[in-house]
Amino acid sequence: MKITFLGTAGSMITKSRTNLAVLVDEDLLIDCGEGTSQKLLAILGDLSRIETILISHGHADHIMGITSLLWAMWLSSRRTKDLKIIGPEYIETLVTSLLKLGYTPLDRLTFRINYGFNTFSHENIFFKATLHYPTNFAYRIDRSGKSLCYTGDTAPCEGLIGLAKKCDVLIHEAAFPDELSNLAHKLNHSTPSDAGQLASRANVRILALVHWPDTFEGNESILIDQARKSFDGEIILAKDLDVLEL
Questions:
Q1: Is 169's pLDDT higher than 70?
Q2: Cross-strand partners of 126
Q3: pTM for the complete prediction?
Q4: CATH assignment of 2-117+124-245?
């Protein structure tokens, strides 16, 4: 399993990081923040390689790249094969509305979009709703003997322990530093220590922090040290275009 961190920024993009998006191998995309299309095109060359998109939730920093990606899939390759978009129950309405707002009617696309968990049978993909609003899905992907769990946005959530159990890598948000934990939890987000606690309780091998605040660029070791308080395994503070081979 090859994991490419396309975007790792918090809610605010920075000069070096764009919003959330993770590429698994060359066919599965998790979240689609602003800037995703250009990075995918640079890496893959052909956007039609993407077969499935998992969307954690509907906040702008996780989905606003979807319209430009669908547009680019049509224009760059005249895609004809179906695309699967998986997410909470409102995702189909949201994506359709975004396309309409961009004056991109569905009948202009040369491919069909299938939504929901009944659209594939070859993937071992599991999900769990987390503590966030709007509804956020965390995902577990088991593939080729390897596994990853991606939390999306969430406050500390007991239900994620089972989902992440013994994963090779846990990709966990760290939107606030430990000293702002009360605010983080009030806003349904997590800290590095929260991520470390889940990684430890789920007995994962690697913890990769994403969605970390721009104020710590240049001082990344602080966030790693906070996560290390509760997890003694390998910790990665992911940056854009970092690659992790499992």
A1: yes
A2: 140
A3: 0.95
A4: 3.60.15.10
